[in-house]
Amino acid sequence: MRKDINKPKGKTSAYAFFVQTCREEHRKKNPEQSVNFAEFSKKCSERWKVRGRAENK
């Protein structure tokens, strides 16, 4: 089954934007370093949780 290239994309969540920003920051600081997705994802998730707690206070 082929994918419809004209199909609208779903809404991007705030967390997805956050992870994208984290990835861009990492690339600027370490342009030659490859990224282990599992480790990177865990670090982003921890940062997201800390940020959420700080904003709720």
Automatic annotation (TrEMBL):
It comes from the Eukaryota. Its main location: nucleus. Keywords: DNA-binding, Nucleus. GO terms for molecular function: DNA binding. The keyword Nucleus applies. One of its GO terms (cellular component) is nucleus. It is found in: Nucleus. Belongs to the HMGB family. Residues 8-57 form the HMG box domain. Signal peptide: none annotated. This is HMG box domain-containing protein. The keyword Ribonucleoprotein does not apply. Residues 8-57 bind DNA. SUPFAM superfamilies: HMG-box. InterPro entries: HMG_box_dom (IPR009071), HMG_box_dom_sf (IPR036910), HMGB (IPR050342).
